[in-house]
Amino acid sequence: MSVDSRISRARELYLAFAAGERATVEGLLSEDFEFSSPVDPSLDRAGYFERCRPGAGQEQRFRRGRNTEVLTFRGERICRAEVYFGWDLD
Questions:
Q1: Is there a contact between 80 and 32 (Cβ–Cβ < 8 Å)?
Q2: CA-based, 20 to 30 A from 68: which of 18, 34, 76, 86?
Q3: Tens of pLDDT along the chain (90 residues)?
Q4: Cβ within 8 Å of residue 68, ≥6 positions away
């Protein structure tokens, strides 16, 4: 998978998440997907959807800040997301 394809997949993931399109998000993630952030360390796929439901009030969970997210791909699917929080912008 090319770098441009991975960038397109990442963009598709973020747009679907923001729009609350869970089916699209599910289709982009591998079955053994793992998620980790300072507030949600080591979640499996089910835990990710339980804690980080796409489109379900995320703007209320997180303050505005500088963050970095590292996505790992296996083939065409995202198998891991690691989020690192930076400083607050508010």
A1: no
A2: 76
A3: 899 999 999 999 999 988 889 999 999 999 999 999 888 889 999 999 988 876 555 444 555 667 889 999 999 999 999 998 876 656
A4: 83, 84, 86
Helix count (H) and strand count (E) of the chain? 4, 4
Under 8 Å between Cβ of 59 and 36: no
Tokens of 63: 């303050």
Residue 25's pLDDT is what? 94
This prediction has a pTM of: 0.79
Contact in structure between 26 and 53 (CB atoms under 8 Å): no
**Rounded CA gap, 3 and 17, in Å?**
21
Which residues lie across from 86 on neighbouring strands?
none
Q: What are phi and psi of 75, to 5 degrees?
A: 65, -125
